[in-house]
C-alpha cells in the first residue's frame, strides 16, 4: 500500500497555512511542499492550497469538471488557499485568471505518490534491478490524469525541484516529495508529455542553490552544447531480431567466431556538410559495410550522452541516454535491430570507472560527494581530471548495475566492453606514495570495485544470457574472465594488451633486426589461454601522435603494406577473438581524429584496396573454418610447428577444433622469399593454400605454391617443402590425407 499523503503539521482552526509555510513556499525554500500544498483535511472539511505565480484569481475544479471552490490569494506572489465543497479527497484542476487572461493547470500536489513501499525497500537495500523503470522521467497515467513522473536520488538535499519550459524554469513551482527512507525525491506533473526539456534544481544541505542538474536517469538529452534532459517515451520499435538473439543465447561465445569492428559513430563517415550521420543513415551504410567486410560485431566507442566531442564519449554525463548527436533513441534501437537482422552483433563501450566534473552532471549532485568519493585520494582521477564512482555505496553500485541491464534489455545490445578496468581495480593507479588510501587489509586492491564488477557481471549474465562483457584490463590481475563463483571477476573476455604491445613493437623494427626480437611474438603463447582473450588493435593505437598501423610498420611503402597484411594474417590465425579499429581495415594513412571522417577515397587505390580484401578474406576464413575459432580460448586448439627459427623470422603453428580440418599458419617476416623451406605438418597429404597475404590481388608480389603443397612422411616426421613468400602469412588447410 502507498504511504498516506502528508498533511500540514500545523494550521489554524480556519484551515489557513502558517505564515512561515507560506513564506517558504513563495521563496522556494520549503523542504516538504506536500505538507502545505495540495488537498488537506481540516476538521471535517477539505482545504486546497496552491502556488500559481502571476495569478490574481484561482478556482478549483475536480478532474471531471465539477467546481470545488474559490481560493483566496494569501500572498501576492501567487499563494492561494481555500475551503473545498467536495467531500472526498481527489486531484484538482485550477482555473487561474489575471488581467491579461486565463489558463488552466492541474495541481501536482493533489496527487498521491507513484513509488511504493516495495520500491523503497529494494532501493534502500541496493537490490532494485529495475531502477530505470522507477527513476528518471516517465510518461504515465496516474489517478485519472496523464503526465510525467519524475524521481531522482538526492538524499542530502534540502529541496529538489523539476524545472523546465513548462514552469518557466522556476524551481518554486514543482518542488518534489522527499521519500526520506531512500533519499528519493518524486513528483507527478500532469498535463505534460514527451519531448519536454527539464533539469533538477537542488538546494544543498548548506542552503546553497546548485547549478541545474541533468537527470542521471535521463533517457534522452538535448544536443550539445545544450545540457538539459528530455522527457522520452520508451523505444517503441518493433523488434525482429529473435533469431539472432536466440542463437547467441544458446551459444558458447568462446567457441564462436567473433571479429569486432570498432567504430566511433561520429567520425566513421560524415554527411557532405560535415554533420553527423543519423542512426538510420549509419544503418544504411555501416551495417552493409560490416557485413561485406566479414565482421561479426560492431563495437561503438561510448554512445551515451557526453558534452565534449574530443572525449570520444569516455566522459559521459548521461549513461542512460543515447547521444542526441545521432538523433532520437528510437533510431539507435532501429540500428541494433537492423544489425541483428543482418547477422551483426552490437557491443557498446561502457564507462563505469569515472565521470566528468561538468557542473550539470553527477559531481556533487546534491551538494555533497554523492556518486563520487569525498576524499580525492579515492574520488579524483589524476589522469583524466574526472571523478571516480564510490563503489562502496550501494546506491551507486545499483545505478551502474542497472545501467548495464538497461542497455541489454531496452536496446538489445550484445555486449559491453568495460573501459579502464585496471584503473578501477587498483587504489594506487597513477598515484604516487601518499596519494592513495590502502584497503581494509592494507593492500592496493580496490575491493569495493572488485565487488561491483562481480555483481555487474553476475546480473548481466544471469538476466541476459547471450550478452557478453569484455574487460579492457592492462595488468596481470588474475581470473578477469573466470566466473565469479571460481573467484574471478566474471567477465566473458579480456583484451589482450600484451599481444597488441608486443606485436606492434616487433613490426616497427626493420626486418634485419627482427631475429633479435623473435621472443616478442612467441612469448604471448605462454599466457594465451590464461584468460578468454580478445586481440585488440584499437583506437588507442592510432591517436595522440601514435600514427596509424600502416605508419607503424617498418620499411618502404611496399614493405609497410606487405607487413600489415602479413600481420593481419598472423593475428587472424592466432588464438583469440579479433578487434580492429575503423580505417585500419584499409590501411588509413592519416592518424584518426574524431573531427573528420575516415579517408574513404583510399579504397580507390590498389594497395589500400588490397588490405581491405585481405581483411575481408581473413574474416571469411575465420568464420568458416572451425579450426580458426572453435578453440580460440583453449590450449588444445593450438600447436607450434616452428617456434625457434629466429634467424629467418619464420613462425608456424597449427590450429585445430572439432568439426573442422586442421589449418596451418606460416609467417615469414622478412622481405626475403624462402624457397624450399621445410615446414613440419601434423598429417601427411595435400594441404590447400586458403590464403596468401602476398597474393597479387592483395597488392603483393604474387609468390606462392600454386595453391597446394603436399606433406610427406619421412621416418617419424611429416613435413612439406614450400616457398614462403616475402613479408607474408599463408594458411594451409588439410584437404586429403
Automatic annotation (TrEMBL):
Keywords: Carbohydrate metabolism, Glycogen biosynthesis, Glycogen metabolism, Glycosyltransferase, Transferase. GO terms for molecular function: 1,4-alpha-glucan branching enzyme activity. Its EC number is 2.4.1.18. It catalyses: Transfers a segment of a (1->4)-alpha-D-glucan chain to a primary hydroxy group in a similar glucan chain. It comes from the Bacteria. Coiled coil: none annotated. SMART domains: Aamy. Pathway: Glycan biosynthesis; glycogen biosynthesis. Residues 262-629 form the Glycosyl hydrolase family 13 catalytic domain. It is an enzyme of class 2 (transferase). The active site is at residues 419, 472. SUPFAM superfamilies: (Trans)glycosidases, E set domains, Glycosyl hydrolase domain. NCBIfam families: branching_enzym, PRK05402.1, PRK12313.1. Monomer. Catalyzes the formation of the alpha-1,6-glucosidic linkages in glycogen by scission of a 1,4-alpha-linked oligosaccharide from growing alpha-1,4-glucan chains and the subsequent attachment of the oligosaccharide to the alpha-1,6 position. Belongs to the glycosyl hydrolase 13 family. GlgB subfamily. This is 1,4-alpha-glucan branching enzyme GlgB. It comes from Mesorhizobium opportunistum.
Amino acid at each position: 500500500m502507498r504511504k498516506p499523503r502528508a498533511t500540514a503539521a500545523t494550521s489554524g482552526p480556519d484551515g489557513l497555512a502558517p505564515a512561515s509555510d507560506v513564506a517558504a513556499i513563495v521563496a522556494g525554500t520549503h523542504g516538504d511542499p506536500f505538507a502545505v500544498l495540495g488537498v488537506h483535511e481540516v476538521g471535517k472539511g477539505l482545504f486546497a492550497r496552491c502556488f500559481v505565480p502571476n495569478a490574481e484569481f484561482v478556482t478549483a475544479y475536480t478532474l471531471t469538471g465539477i467546481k470545488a471552490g474559490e481560493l483566496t490569494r494569501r500572498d501576492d506572489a501567487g499563494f492561494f488557499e481555500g475551503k473545498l465543497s467536495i467531500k472526498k479527497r481527489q486531484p484538482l484542476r485550477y482555473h487561474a485568471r489575471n488581467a491579461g487572461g486565463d489558463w488552466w493547470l492541474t495541481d501536482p500536489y493533489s496527487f498521491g505518490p507513484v513509488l511504493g513501499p516495495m520500491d523503497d525497500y529494494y532501493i534502500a537495500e541496493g537490490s532494485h534491478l529495475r531502477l530505470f523503470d522507477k527513476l528518471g522521467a516517465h510518461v504515465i497515467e496516474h489517478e485519472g490524469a496523464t503526465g510525467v513522473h519524475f524521481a531522482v536520488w538526492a538524499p542530502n538535499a534540502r529541496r529538489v525541484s523539476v524545472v523546465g519550459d513548462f514552469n518557466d524554469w522556476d524551481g518554486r513551482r514543482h518542488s518534489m516529495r522527499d521519500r526520506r527512507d531512500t533519499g528519493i525525491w518524486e513528483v507527478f506533473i500532469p498535463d505534460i508529455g514527451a519531448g519536454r526539456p527539464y533539469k533538477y534544481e537542488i538546494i544543498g544541505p548548506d542552503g546553497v542553490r546548485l547549478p541545474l542538474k541533468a537527470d542521471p536517469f535521463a533517457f534522452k538529452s538535448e544536443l550539445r552544447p545544450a545540457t538539459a534532459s528530455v522527457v522520452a517515451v520508451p523505444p517503441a520499435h518493433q523488434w525482429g531480431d529473435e533469431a539472432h538473439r536466440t542463437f547467441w543465447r544458446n551459444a558458447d561465445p568462446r567457441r564462436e567466431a567473433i571479429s569486432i569492428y570498432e567504430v566511433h559513430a561520429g567520425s566513421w563517415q560524415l554527411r557532405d556538410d560535415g554533420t553527423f550521420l543519423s542512426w538510420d543513415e549509419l544503418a544504411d551504410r555501416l551495417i552493409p559495410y560490416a557485413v561485406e567486410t566479414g565482421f561479426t560485431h560492431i563495437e561503438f566507442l561510448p554512445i551515451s550522452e557526453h558534452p565534449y566531442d574530443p572525449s570520444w564519449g569516455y566522459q559521459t554525463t548521461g549513461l542512460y541516454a543515447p547521444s542526441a548527436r545521432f538523433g532520437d533513441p528510437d533510431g539507435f534501437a532501429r540500428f541494433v535491430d537492423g544489425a541483428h537482422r543482418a547477422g551483426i552483433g552490437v557491443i557498446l563501450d561502457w564507462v563505469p570507472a569515472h565521470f566528468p566534473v561538468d557542473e550539470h552532471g553527477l559531481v556533487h549532485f546534491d551538494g555533497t560527494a554523492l556518486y563520487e568519493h569525498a576524499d580525492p585520494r579515492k574520488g579524483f582521477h589524476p589522469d583524466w581530471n574526472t571523478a571516480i564512482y564510490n563503489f562502496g555505496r550501494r546506491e551507486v553500485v545499483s545505478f551502474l548495475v542497472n545501467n548495464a541491464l538497461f542497455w541489454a534489455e531496452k536496446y538489445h545490445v550484445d555486449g559491453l566492453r568495460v573501459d579502464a578496468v585496471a584503473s578501477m581495480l587498483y587504489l594506487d593507479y597513477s598515484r604516487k606514495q601518499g596519494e592513495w588510501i590502502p584497503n581494509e587489509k592494507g593492500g592496493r586492491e580496490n575491493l569495493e570495485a572488485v565487488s561491483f564488477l562481480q555483481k555487474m557481471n553476475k546480473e548481466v549474465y544471469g538476466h541476459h544470457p547471450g550478452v557478453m562483457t569484455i574487460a579492457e584490463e592492462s595488468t596481470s590481475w588474475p581470473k578477469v574472465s573466470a566466473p565469479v563463483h571460481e573467484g574471478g571477476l566474471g567477465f566473458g573476455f579480456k583484451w589482450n594488451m600484451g599481444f597488441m604491445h608486443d606485436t606492434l613493437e616487433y613490426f616497427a623494427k626493420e626486418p634485419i633486426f627482427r631475429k633479435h626480437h623473435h621472443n616478442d611474438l612467441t612469448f604471448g603463447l605462454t599466457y594465451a589461454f590464461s584468460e578468454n582473450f580478445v586481440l585488440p588493435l584499437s583506437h588507442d593505437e592510432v591517436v595522440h601522435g601514435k600514427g596509424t598501423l600502416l605508419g607503424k610498420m617498418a620499411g618502404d611503402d611496399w614493405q609497410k603494406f606487405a607487413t600489415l597484411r602479413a600481420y593481419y594474417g598472423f593475428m587472424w590465425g592466432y588464438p583469440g577473438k579479433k578487434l580492429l579499429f575503423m580505417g585500419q581495415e584499409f590501411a588509413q594513412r592519416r592518424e584518426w581524429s574524431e573531427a573528420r571522417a575516415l579517408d574513404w577515397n583510399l579504397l580507390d587505390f590498389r594497395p589500400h584496396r588490397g588490405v581491405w580484401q585481405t581483411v575481408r578474406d581473413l574474416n571469411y576464413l575465420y568464420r568458416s573454418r572451425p579450426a580458426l575459432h572453435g578453440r580460440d580460448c583453449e590450449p588444445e586448439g593450438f600447436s607450434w610447428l616452428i617456434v625457434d627459427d629466429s634467424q629467418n623470422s619464420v613462425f608456424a603453428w597449427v590450429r585445430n577444433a572439432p568439426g573442422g580440418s586442421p589449418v596451418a599458419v606460416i609467417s615469414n617476416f622478412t622481405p626475403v622469399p624462402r624457397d624450399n623451406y621445410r615446414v613440419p605438418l601434423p598429417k601427411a597429404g595435400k594441404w590447400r593454400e586458403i590464403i596468401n597475404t602476398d597474393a597479387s590481388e592483395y597488392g603483393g608480389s604474387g609468390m606462392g605454391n600454386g595453391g597446394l603443397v603436399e606433406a610427406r612422411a619421412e621416418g617419424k616426421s611429416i613435413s612439406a617443402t614450400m616457398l614462403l613468400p616475402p613479408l607474408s602469412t599463408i594458411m594451409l588447410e588439410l584437404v586429403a590425407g
